[in-house]
Amino acid sequence: MAERYLEELTKIHDAVKQDLLGGRINLLLGWEKGHYWWQSRPLFAENEQDLERLTWDSFCAVNLSRYLLEELKDYQKIGVLVKGCDSRSFNRLLQDNMVARQRVVLYGLPCPGMLDYELLTATAEAELESIAEQNGIVVLRSAAGEKTVEREQLLLYKCRDCRYPDPVVYDQLLLAPRGEKEAPERYKSVTKLEEMPADERYTHWEKELSRCLRCYACRQACPYCSCRECFVEQDKPRWQGRAYQESENFLFHLVRAYHGAGRCIDCGECQRACPVNIPLQELNRKLIKDINELYGQFEAGLNADLEPPLLTYKPDDPAAFSEK
Amino acid sequence: MPRTGVFICHCGTNIAGTVDIARAIDASRNFPGVVHADEYRYLCSEMGQDLIKNAINENNLDRVVVGTCSPRMHEGTFRKAAAEAGLNPYMLEVANIREHCSWVHRDIEEGTPKAIALLRAAAAKVALNDPLDSPELEVEKRALVIGGGIAGIQAAIDIAEAGYVVDVVEREPSIGGRMAQLEKTFPTLDCSACILTPKMVEAAQHPNINLITYSEVEEVKGFVGQFDVKIKMKARSIDPVKCTGCGVCYEKCPAKAPSEFEMGMTKRKAIYVPFPQAVPNVPVIDRENCLYFKKGRCQICAKECPPQAVDYEQQDQIIERRYGAIIVATGFDQLDPSSYGEYGYGQHPDILTALEFERLFNASGPTGGKVVRLSDGKPPKKVVFIQCIGSRDKARGMNYCSKICCMFTAKQAILLKEKVPDAKSYVFYIDVRTAGKGYEEFQRRAAEEYDVAYLRGQVGKIFPEGDHLVVHGVDSLSGKVVDIKADMVVLAAASIARADAPEVGRIVGINSDSYHFFNEAHPKLKPVETHTAGVFIAGACQAPKDIPDTVAQAGAAAVKAIGLLSKDVLKGEACTAIVNQAECSGCLYCEAVCPYNAINHIEIEERYHEEMHKRTVAEVNPSLCQGCGSCSVACRSGSINLKGFTNEQILAEVDAICLQR
Amino acid sequence: MSTALNNNADGWDPLIVAFCCNWCSYAGGDLAGTSRMSYPANVKVIRVPCSGRLNPMFVLRAFQRGADGVLVAGCHPGDCHYSTGNYHSRRRLSSFKRLVEFAGFEPERFEVRWISSSEGDKFAEEMEAITGKIKALGPNRKMRDARWQNVT
Amino acid sequence: MATSSKTRLVEEMQKQSGQDPNGCFQCAKCSAACPVTAAMDLLPHQVIRYLQLGLEEELANSKTPWVCASCFTCAARCPRDLDLARMMEGVRLVMLRRREGNKFGPADLTPEQLAKLPQQALVSGFRKYNK
Fold it and tell me: What ipTM, to 2 d.p.?
């Protein structure tokens, strides 16, 4: 079994229980253990009984803000546990008019970064039985014995270059803040790709995108994908061909990424949700990097009052065309 | 299935010389939906148009493609012809096979396939055309002018003369604005009041003009032709019908306050008219300084007023009125130079701004028209004028040139010499800018005939020494540092936008530049229009400008307003954006990019899980939309589309052009 | 490239789609015609009201359907008929251009130009230039829809 | 950008100071504000003018850059947001380096000297006398 952050969980539990029973919220969005010990899935708690399943551990990667889109149709007032990325997702939804601030209570959980099960097993080099964590160290227990690894080495890809582990918007902060972090390697893969010759780069993406099943899990997980009807499903016009082929896969992924230009909060849920491990975050990060270079530093989701860069302009903006 | 007719014009040999018409006709017959194809030597001629009309009727065509010259040339002609044959005029598309094909390609082999591709694209597009209507809206035949300075007065007179009713809203108790504060005007040295007062009186007496003074515009709703405006009339405390303007009230009033009109250099009474020629000549009570309003005692004015016009009970009033057009002419302010420590403005009575100095010449001004030092009442013998205070200053002031200072400084130096013949003027300048009729000659007269010393350079410090002010500056042309023992210093402070210009812009719905001057719709071709149809700008609220330019611009704005009011109904743009509200998720990115404020949001109700839910969606006002289509790109789900250039149509054109070479 | 195309480079002639705004660039194209300038017929113009109308998806569609190059032309920044359309398109298309390059397109395949209605000569020159660049690059196979390969 | 016609001195000065003399429109406010013009042979605005025109030799012979007290009044007053004091420092540095070249470096000093001399003096010395 994974170690639960028992002390923290008690704090969280007490805080939300009071609000749920007291009627401040009608539903709590949290996490509960899934089928496997290394899965923590969304919990939809309406009552005290449901709340008993609440968990808080190193596998609570799922972005809960995204679930507000559906749940707000059925519940008047919803409490959500938000990590740094979930809170910036909430700002994304708020700025896009998808949620009403006064109908949501945000419980802020500064986040230590979530662990990557695939990385854990790969590191253990055997089927894992359980893990234990202490002071930034993870003990991997398997049939092959115990192995001790630094926690930082085992983080999900999306967590490795996280700059804002602390929620940027909340009603109650339940845990101690961890402070902003540097992310020096955030654009490393993007830069590597940029340096390739065009044809090689195309071949790279051709290979990656050829795996795409067009299951649209990336879209479902994404806080910036909040359209009522996504372009891929429209018939009039039919933007996206239904055929399962390279050209259409490129179209989908380029347009998906482009729709996040200036809006993507870089939570990495798209990539985490992808069943075939397409490095989708690089497409999003490429856009973030370019927009920052061209139009000034901007982190989407930090402040819902700042207009996304593609909705505004300056008369003397630079351009990326061969003629300036 | 569409029934499209294709008509190809030879344009003499202009098209037929480079495009094989027969081949193009053959190809056109095979385009999807095309049931008829024909050609003619000059399709735009009457005979050519008849050919199209007859074919529409005979073949029951429901849409038309013409392969002709540019749509910018004859699209209107052919749309009209289609309409005469009973089609909606927007069921026609033009393939530009002349300017974009036959004229730029060398021979038949090059021109023909391209012409066919362009015709195929037009046929693919027209198959998706829908009938469109231009929105029609009635025009309220009344104009609103905001601001009663020379710009507002001129615009109002011009509109009134054209036969339309116009309301002028002025914030101050009297119209007149900045020009009323001036003694003389350059370059003719006309007395400002002598040319302005008749205009003020004309405005007041014109049957088509209503002056609404001591009032402010609070809210503007609606759109071109139908602006619904709320105007707040501040309580004047005087019944304007009874008041005869005799002036007894302000003679007797015991309470005083700094005079705004005299730039605070002298005092006025709590009941006052701002200046003797005020229009209307009806005083107001400044309730903040009135003893009765402050302490509940006094009422001398009411007791003394012969027609008993004083009314302490008067309340602010809101007027609600509809206007067809609005002219914004709210003028400018003068920068307060106190932030420039080196000039010592505000710390010495003989360091003045130009507007303050101007008042010294005026017979009703603070010195009764005597040009004297405020410190000791002696006439100044040496006056230093400093240019570009806060102008051309990107570090601490405004990056722009205020345009009028070079000229008013020359004027003031000349006036000074006339009032104080033994006075000597010095002007510190960076560049002398005198573009304007008679301006250069005027400035040269100052230098040559009035002995004004122009020093190219700036001033680093001013400090008092005995009775004098030492001006420490530099003359860059001689490369010498100079110290001038002056009696008075006049600062040409920058002309800046009114402090509340952003607020006015927000209320009226027009945007401003980074200095808060209102933006014209096009810097060259639409100098008085704004991005909000039906709202025009005039005068120094757009940028610093002198009186001739202001009056010219006011006339231009008036003509635009008259042109609008002369129509009974307005025909709007037919190709406007439209929202699919079932799909719209309400993110309102479209609203953010719309340059015309044509997109609003509304709440709609929707059934979900047996319950009604409210939801925000975007809505387009077709009267305001100009059809740029920027919103349709900001919308990720394509829920807002542009009629006439829909997503479907453009994709169909792309497909048609690419599919066959 | 995994997709083999039937058209070999010998008989190949590039197809270039140019989206032109109605008020400046399309009119610039008209002027090029009126002045009897000449440029290659490879360029086919689609008229849009404003470069701000240009949805990047139109560009991708053109590549899917076999365009070898795409050009967007609009009024010079500051001169937009709708005042702000090209300011928006400058930001949108700059980030989009970088994105398609990141996907592996050569920079020359997608370009944006500001051409005023008085710049007939510039219009013709730009059409000539982009055609030359695309000819040098050869046919575009990237993102091309395999189903359209047999089209003549 | 048009190709620059700036001389080496101006380019080096610009690199050192981050200030472009072409931003100046010669209003001469700096000269009017400067407290030490009495001791100068060229007025401050003239120094910028010379930089604009690339009059290197004349500048090299001028006392003004050396008289400048770096009081920054010119920078505080400049309406074009230029920092003339920095430009002056840039001119001085370029001149010094040209004149003095690699006069001495860390290797020329004994360990005792290096230990004894204040850090600031060392840094300043190397900046001036070591390219």
Answer: 0.79
